[in-house]
TrEMBL record:
InterPro entries: Aminotransferase_I/II_large, LL-DAP_aminotransferase, NHTrfase_class1_PyrdxlP-BS, PyrdxlP-dep_Trfase, PyrdxlP-dep_Trfase_major, PyrdxlP-dep_Trfase_small. Keywords: Aminotransferase, Transferase. Pfam families: Aminotran_1_2 (PF00155). Belongs to the class-I pyridoxal-phosphate-dependent aminotransferase family. GO terms for molecular function: transaminase activity. This is Aminotransferase. Its EC number is 2.6.1.-. It comes from the Bacteria. The keyword Glycoprotein does not apply. It comes from Flavobacterium paronense. Residues 32-380 form the Aminotransferase class I/classII large domain. Its cofactor is pyridoxal 5'-phosphate. The lineage of its organism: Bacteria, Pseudomonadati, Bacteroidota, Flavobacteriia, Flavobacteriales.
Length: 380
C-alpha cells in the first residue's frame, strides 16, 4: 500500500470540507438546512465586471497561458486601489503580485520563507489555514493568545517574554477573522516595531477591510512597513468574487520576488478573462461598498436578533462578514452547533475551529438572505 507523506500526519482535512458533507447529507434527506457557517458571498459582482469578462473571451490572446505576474493593467489597478483607499504608494511592476486568491498566498509565502524547524506565530483564535500550512511546510506553529479583554489584539508584553529565537514569521489578520475586531494604526506600528526588533516577517491578511467598516486600514500605511511586512488582500469579499480566485500580495521587491519564485513553479498564470473582470472591479467607486453594506447591515441586525435569542453576547462594533458571539457560560461550542444542526437544521460555525480560545464562541456568516435569517429566528 502506498504510504502518504509524513507531512500529512500533521494536518487534517479542512473543517468545512468535512462538515459540509454532513450538511449535504441532511439536505439530501429533505432537511431544510440553513447554512450560516460559510463566508462565501451570495451576492453577485457588479454587472460591469461580468461584462468585462464576457467581452474578453473574444480577445486574440484570451485563451493562452498568461504571465505569472498578471497583466500590467491588473497590477496597475491594484496599485491604484491601494492609493485611493489606503493612501499607500506601490510600484505596480515590482511591489505587487496577483494571486489566485489570497489563500494561495499563505502557502506561497510559507514556502518562500520557512525552513524546517522555523517557528511561526499563529493567532489563537485565527484562520485555521495559517497553522495547517505551517505544519505542511514542516515549520512549527506557535500560538499567541488573543482575547476579548484586549479587543483581540496581541499582548506584546507576553510576546516579548517568550523565546523568539526561532520565530521567522508572524501571521496577523485585521480586520480580525473570526472575531471582527478592527485594527488600528497604533497596533500596526507596534507590529512593525516588533518585527524589526526580532527580524520577524509580519504578514497581514486583509480581505475584510471594506465589509461594514468605515475605516479601512492597511499595515503598509505604517512608515517603514515594507522593510519587514507583506500584506495579502483579495477581491473575494470586497467585490463578491470568491469563486473567481483573485488576490494579491504586496510588499518590497525582494520579498515579492521570493514569493514569485514559488508561484511561478506552481501555476501557469491567471485566466485572462478573470483578470479583465478584476480590472473593472478595482475601478468601482465608494457607492459600490455603500450598496453592499446596506445589505449586510440589514442581515447583521437580524443576526443580532438571533444571537440574542440564543442568549449570546456579541460586539455590535465589530466589522467584516461575520458575527462572533459568546455562548452562555458552560456551553461548549461544538456540542451546541451539532445540537442546533440536528434539531433546528441550522449550521453555525463553532469557535473551536479557530483555536482553543474560540471555545465558548460561535460564528455566524452574513452570506445568508434576510428571509433565511428570519426563518432561523422563527425556528427558535
Amino acid at each position: 500500500m502506498i504510504q502518504t507523506a509524513k507531512r500529512l500526519q500533521s494536518v487534517q482535512e479542512y473543517y468545512f470540507s468535512r462538515k459540509l458533507r454532513e450538511v449535504r447529507q441532511l439536505i439530501s434527506e429533505g432537511k431544510p438546512v440553513i447554512n450560516m457557517g460559510i463566508g462565501s458571498p451570495d451576492l453577485a459582482p457588479d454587472i460591469t465586471v461580468i461584462e468585462a469578462m464576457q467581452k474578453a473571451m473574444f480577445d486574440d490572446k484570451a485563451h493562452e497561458y498568461q504571465s505569472y505576474q498578471g497583466l500590467p493593467e491588473l497590477r496597475k489597478g491594484m496599485a491604484d486601489f491601494y492609493k485611493n483607499h489606503f493612501n499607500v504608494d506601490l510600484d505596480f511592476n515590482t511591489e505587487i503580485l496577483p494571486l489566485m486568491g489570497s489563500k494561495e498566498g499563505i502557502m506561497h509565502i510559507s514556502l518562500a520563507f520557512l525552513n524546517e524547524g522555523d517557528e511561526v506565530l499563529i493567532p489563537n483564535p485565527g484562520y485555521p489555514t495559517y497553522a495547517s500550512v505551517t505544519e505542511l511546510v514542516q515549520a512549527k506553529a506557535v500560538n499567541y493568545d488573543l482575547s476579548a479583554a484586549t479587543n483581540w489584539q496581541p499582548d506584546f508584553e507576553v510576546l516579548e517574554k517568550s523565546d523568539l529565537s526561532k520565530v521567522k514569521l508572524m501571521w496577523v489578520s485585521y480586520p480580525h477573522m473570526p472575531t471582527g475586531a478592527n485594527g488600528t494604526l497604533e497596533l500596526f506600528e507596534k507590529l512593525i516595531a516588533f518585527g524589526k526588533k526580532h527580524n520577524i516577517l509580519i504578514v497581514n491578511d486583509n480581505p475584510y477591510s471594506f465589509v461594514l467598516n468605515g475605516n479601512p486600514l492597511s499595515i503598509l500605511q505604517v512608515e517603514g512597513s515594507k522593510d519587514i511586512a507583506l500584506e495579502l488582500n483579495s477581491l473575494s469579499k470586497t467585490y463578491n468574487m470568491a469563486g473567481w480566485r483573485v488576490g494579491m500580495v504586496l510588499g518590497n521587491p525582494t520579498l515579492i520576488d521570493a514569493v514569485l519564485k514559488v508561484k511561478s513553479n506552481m501555476d501557469s498564470g491567471m485566466f485572462y478573462g478573470i483578470q479583465k473582470g478584476a480590472i473593472e472591479a478595482l475601478k468601482l467607486k465608494n457607492d459600490w461598498f455603500e450598496k453592499q453594506n446596506e445589505i449586510y447591515t440589514k442581515r447583521r441586525n437580524l443576526i443580532f436578533k438571533l444571537a440574542e435569542k440564543l442568549n449570546c453576547v456579541f460586539d455590535k462594533n465589530s466589522v467584516g462578514l461575520f458575527v462572533w458571539a459568546k455562548l452562555p457560560s458552560g456551553i461548549m461550542s461544538e456540542e451546541f452547533i451539532d445540537k442546533v444542526l440536528i434539531e433546528k437544521h441550522i449550521f453555525i460555525t463553532p469557535g473551536t475551529i479557530f483555536g482553543s480560545n474560540g471555545e465558548g464562541y460561535i460564528r455566524f456568516s452574513l452570506c445568508v438572505t434576510e428571509e433565511k435569517i428570519q426563518q432561523a429566528i422563527e425556528r427558535f
